[in-house]
Write the structure tokens for this entry.
Amino acid sequence: MQINRDNAEERDSCDPLGEFRDEFVLRPGLIYLDGNSLGPMHVSVRERMQACIEDEWANDLIASWNTAGWYDMPLRLGARIAPLIGADANDVVVTDSTSINLFKVLAAAIRLNPGRKVIVSERSNFPTDLYMVEGLSAFAGKGHELRLIDRPEDVAQAIDDSVAVVMLTHVNYRTGRVHDMADITRMAHEAGALVVWDLAHSTGALPVDLAGADADFAVGCTYKYLNGGPGAPAFVYVAPRLQTVAEQPLSGWFGHSRPFAFDPSFEPAKTIHRFLTGTPPVLSMTALEPALAIWDRVDIAAIRAKSVELCEYFIALVEQECAGFGLELASPRDSARRGSQVSFRHENAYAVMQALISRDVVGDFRAPDIMRFGFAPLYIGFVDVFDAVATLSDILQSNAWRDDRFQVRSAVT
Amino acid sequence: MQINRDNAEERDSCDPLGEFRDEFVLRPGLIYLDGNSLGPMHVSVRERMQACIEDEWANDLIASWNTAGWYDMPLRLGARIAPLIGADANDVVVTDSTSINLFKVLAAAIRLNPGRKVIVSERSNFPTDLYMVEGLSAFAGKGHELRLIDRPEDVAQAIDDSVAVVMLTHVNYRTGRVHDMADITRMAHEAGALVVWDLAHSTGALPVDLAGADADFAVGCTYKYLNGGPGAPAFVYVAPRLQTVAEQPLSGWFGHSRPFAFDPSFEPAKTIHRFLTGTPPVLSMTALEPALAIWDRVDIAAIRAKSVELCEYFIALVEQECAGFGLELASPRDSARRGSQVSFRHENAYAVMQALISRDVVGDFRAPDIMRFGFAPLYIGFVDVFDAVATLSDILQSNAWRDDRFQVRSAVT
């Protein structure tokens, strides 16, 4: 592969996804490789939010629960996400945060498998997933224990007939390593365990086939590759075969079979609605809807193909242009095992990332030593990758990252 | 009391809260008596949301967690609510929905009182509160039972030494009846029980003194009298003496003592932060902030005084103008025992309310036979009350409510 900027420009010029870039609001000069943390804003969000605030809230007020379809939003947004994760429209709802949705499905899963006490996960899983298991286990008080594997390839040997639930994040938040969803789900089922998948770093980044894998439960995030806005509500998937039997303890009125009957006894909806709890944050839900509309026009297979190319190009360029500066690839080299991000370890990862950000190349730092770069094919091109690596190379060669201002940690890093 | 429109106009003209009405976006002709369900929009929300969307999200992207203070929002907004409920700034956070926050505090409460199994509440409580107890009890599996009183005055006799928690909504959502917070909290404590108050229909409507009553926990809603916008996130109060010992099972990363250390083990914050869970819905939180700013300029005692006058005026007018049409006051007649709403029973409550709404007098219906009218003193005046009753009287006298179109129930009623 010829590595130069002309080549990158040529690749951008024949990129079938190139047309979508201008639909996102990104200021000139910014190379935003942090869409895996917070996606940028789709231009259509402006008008939609304006309409929600002025027409729906200010003008129509309470009537908008019916007339503007606020009440149907959890299912309507879920239906838009469904094709991206291999689910049917009625099997996904958008509601609450990923952490809370994880609690719901974990609680449902351990009740469906009452004789077993082990929950398998990874020590390197996103911490909140592990925290939710801790909280759940302590509260349930039935001796559930977390069995954490240290290497992703050790999942198989951790699954035995004591395992109630296997809970894994499909794409690791730090390394981008991908688990084999179909294979692990099959192994877990053969051992009598249920499987919960966290799709935070998968949805909108690569094809996912929950139904094809016969997965039991999944949760995921909408503010990363789905560009739903800061803290946009998360989603829950429940396999149709489980929807009438899975019981979750956060049984609020939106999960009732007849929420407006105001019955003092809870009767769960016989649908995915039983995974809803309280009143949804309508403004945050509303910003997500136009952001999801783009997926009517975009093939997730094309996203994946370009994502692989961007990541391979980035790795090749970094290893060529930044050799000898102590960078070590922390992501799998094999594209088939890697999501839409590339992570490098560096002794001074924090300062180097701060220096990059100061020059408008935005990735992020993950403790203790990871620089993480996300490649969202909807708005990132090959020239972006080229320029990002040129900047990284210059920062390393000039020692610019040693500047005092890049050493100070902010509250949220 | 002389009851005529001139009198109402005079009362509006010398109303010290009259100046605030124009700060709310309410279309001409609308008499909005449903702010106890969804408050209207404060004019400052427009500009603030525009800035959040354009400057914070679209332009500054991920940096806004620090630079725009997104990360501090749960505590910052909680501090603004604190003076309205008799709490210190560090004892309240805004997060999640009321239902979910109720689960957190109930779970914490039953763990603090492990030898007892009874949770006292009211059959007429807002149903989601009871549903959350059901979900919690079933999941905990320790035999917790709900002891429901049928009459609000029966709280005292329901409290004995088997009671772990007394969970009450301060102002009843249907009747507006107010519980004596200080008295009930004292009785519960004397019996060794903890108390959880739901302030959904209290906050911003009447003074609340949680610290003065020595309450243990409280939750509340921000989209009613606080005008935070549809589905705006709720709040949680935890007494300072309980903050380091209360443990709640929804232990997500925002509740960790060091969320960005990405430690695989959960260590709860030693503050109210431990009642946070996942990433907050920033856009919905943002709309709430300017809505709360008005309380810097408004005295809750003045709100209460006007609220009592508005409600008394409404009751007197209805009983004078609509006598003989089968309306029965469902709220306490004694203002000291009534929140900022008035409810009337009527055999055809649904149709009469629909007819009122069709003529721009907006209250709401609560099954099976309640017409509910909320009086928010920030934007409702005496002429509004007069005109609302005139419309109601006309609808009853003309039988306009018998029209077919007022009989059909919508999905969300």
